[in-house]
Write a structure and sequence with these properties.
This protein is of the alpha/beta class. The chain has two domains: 3-207 and 327-393, Crotonobetainyl-coa:carnitine coa-transferase, domain 1 (Rossmann fold, 3-Layer(aba) Sandwich); 236-316, formyl-coa transferase, domain 3, CATH 3.30.1540. It contains 18 helices and eleven strands. The protein starts with 7 loop residues before the first strand and ends with a helix. The mean pLDDT is 97.
């Protein structure tokens, strides 16, 4: 039996950092109920393009990380909205409550840990913020990349700082929060006690700077952008072929000697290149010599040559290439809309969960705005149709 089927997550979420976290939990089989303001909703619902003509708040960008969830609308700025939240916690008995609201809104919305703990003592409360619970500074992924040092480390040596191609501060923070939730579930199983978890996107981002911080603060070395090369290993870079590009990563001196022994790379057979330090000191000339050799070869020919001597190499795949990779293709997640028949293809999970395998890598379609109001407020909480209509008219749901 998959124990995560018994875990319910109530999430006041928007944007990326928290929706990706709860998407990870949905892939485990948790029941995830996302809550949104009945007027403003999640801004990401309107990013990209509508997947069907006339379909509001179901744009393409939103689709990528919200499958497998249910959706409620609830105005927690209204007293009746907070009353409904209390009923949700009492009657649905969620294991986890999560939010990425600014901390100044916690008490105002009735979602602060102390308030919710009074309702459910063993609740695991998760607050994701940009810079910690003491800060109300707005945070977007590129801002975290800039302030957290990632942009300083990304780009060509003589070029401008650049953003990383995926939102690492968002998704990296989600992964850190995921691990903390697993820890909290374990502690609760052992002690029957809930806990408060505060996760800062900034702290999460800076924690990835393992080598850069040590080299800078301990050894006084300036660590900055280096393009496709590696600060400490050579040759490691992108090299041109006659029909594309290949990334080659030589991991040690033995591998380099095998490379230099190939007739195609005879120019590399030099005493000063025998050790990694010598290669690092002359890395520009080294890479130019390798490029001179590789541009005469096809991509497939170069890859076969590297495989033959045990040197790691790969062509530079497009996203489509990656999705068609045999190690990926069968693990892509599908979500079909029962209403229109439209089917989404989603990125694979970081690891195969029992829930995904059991369900043939399928999740329910990303929920429409307030799609489950009637099912949850009405059927599960027992709110009458007349009261639901009144709540909607009053802007509470």
């Amino acid at each position: 039996m998959d124990i995560f089927r018994n875990v319910t997550v109530l999430s006041l979420e928007q944007a990326t950092v928290l929706p990706y976290l709860t998407y990870r939990l949905a892939m485990d089989g948790c029941r995830v109920i996302r809550m949104e303001h009945p007027v403003y909703g999640d801004p990401n619902r309107l990013v990209g393009e509508p997947f069907l003509e006339g379909e509001e708040r179901m744009y393409s960008y939103f689709m990528a990380i919200n499958a497998g969830k249910e959706a409620l609308t609830l105005n927690l700025g209204e007293p009746k909205g907070q009353e409904l939240l209390v009923r949700l916690i009492r009657q649905l008995n969620p294991d986890i409550f999560a939010t990425n609201q600014l901390p100044r809104n916690y008490t105002k919305l009735g979602i602060d840990y102390d308030t919710l703990k009074e309702i459910k003592r063993d609740l695991i409360w998760v607050g994701i913020t940009g810079f910690g619970p003491q800060s109300n500074e707005a945070a977007y992924d590129p801002i975290l990349q800039a302030r957290g040092g990632l942009m300083e480390l990304t780009g060509e040596p003589d070029g401008t700082p650049e953003v990383v191609g995926v939102p690492l501060p968002d998704m990296g923070c989600s992964e850190h929060a995921y691990g903390l939730i697993m820890r909290a579930l374990y502690v609760r199983a052992a002690t029957r006690e809930g806990m408060r978890i505060d996760v800062s996107m900034f702290e999460s981002t800076t924690s990835w700077l393992t080598v850069p911080v040590t080299m800078t603060k301990t050894f006084g070395k300036k660590i900055t952008r280096r393009g496709n090369t590696h600060e400490f290993f050579a040759p490691v870079s992108v090299y041109p072929t006659s029909d594309g590009y290949v990334y080659i990563a030589v991991g040690n001196d033995k591998q380099f000697l095998a490379l230099a022994a190939l007739p195609e790379f005879a120019a590399l057979d030099r005493p000063d290149y025998a050790k990694n330090l010598g290669r690092i000191r002359d890395v520009t000339n080294l890479n130019n010599a390798i490029s001179e050799a590789t541009r005469k070869m096809t991509t497939e020919g170069l890859l076969a040559l590297m495989a033959g001597i045990g040197v790691a190499a790969s062509k530079i795949n497009t996203v489509n290439d990656v999705a068609d990779d045999p190690l990926v293709k069968d693990r892509l997640i599908k979500a079909r809309d029962r209403k229109s028949g439209f089917e989404l293809t989603l990125a694979p999970a970081p690891f195969d969960t029992p829930y995904l395998k059991e369900n043939g890598y399928r999740l329910s379609f990303p929920p429409r705005f307030g799609e489950h109001n009637e099912a949850i407020f009405g059927k599960e909480l027992g709110v009458s149709s007349e009261e639901l209509a009144d709540l909607k008219a009053a802007g509470v749901i």
